[in-house]
């Protein structure tokens, strides 16, 4: 339910947001190409807007991946709990009696073979749950590495933006000073 709601939110946000960002970029481009006296500031605002939009899209993608991982984890827990319950139920079905006569012993032997067959099927399910856990663990580790890389990328972009803004400010200060005659 949360994933479905988030997909709808993501779709709506992406569509409406992209329209707004495109409109803002078009307005900024018109101001810059029109020779507006504050075109440097407009360009900075435009770059900041585009960077913020990219960060928002990254956050939306990250949240979608987190919801998918949470769904997989809940499914794994449910499957593991079911297999564990089935194993416990089978363990309770093992009779202690060995039979009182030939007919009883043969009947118990048939039941035991059926029981072994059921346990083998549960063993296969247990193996599938273990494989799902290994896959989930691997995806979590890959996700952790990707998130770390993403954090480093955004730190770099922020530092580059700050440096660019500082250089633009210094350049404006240099241009604003009166030149000797």
TrEMBL record:
Keywords for the protein's UniProt record, in alphabetical order: Actin-binding, Coiled coil
Superkingdom classification of source: Eukaryota
One Pfam family from the record: Spectrin
One GO MF term: actin binding
Signal peptide positions (record): none
UniProt xrefs under InterPro entries: Spectrin_repeat
UniProt keyword Coiled coil, yes or no: yes
Coiled coil: 70-125
Protein name: SPTN2 protein
Organism: Molothrus ater (Brown-headed cowbird)
Gene responsible for this protein: Sptbn2
């Amino acid at each position: 339910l949360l994933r479905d709601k988030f997909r709808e939110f993501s779709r709506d946000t992406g569509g409406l947001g992209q329209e707004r960002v495109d409109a803002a970029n078009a307005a900024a481009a018109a101001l810059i190409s029109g020779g507006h006296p504050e075109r440097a500031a407009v360009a900075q605002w435009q770059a900041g807007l585009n960077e913020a939009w990219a960060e928002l899209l990254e956050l939306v993608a990250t949240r979608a991946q987190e919801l998918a991982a949470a769904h997989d984890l809940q499914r794994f827990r449910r499957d593991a709990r079911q297999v564990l319950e089935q194993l416990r139920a089978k363990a309770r079905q093992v009779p202690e009696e060995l039979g009182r006569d030939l007919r009883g012993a043969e009947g118990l032997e048939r039941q035991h073979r059926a029981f072994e067959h059921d346990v083998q099927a549960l063993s296969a399910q247990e193996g599938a749950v273990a494989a799902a856990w290994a896959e989930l663990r691997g995806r979590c580790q890959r996700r952790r590495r990707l998130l770390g890389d993403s954090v480093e990328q955004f730190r770099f972009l922020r530092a580059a933006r700050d440096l660019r803004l500082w250089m633009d400010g210094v350049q404006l200060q240099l241009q604003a000073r009166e030149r000797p005659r």
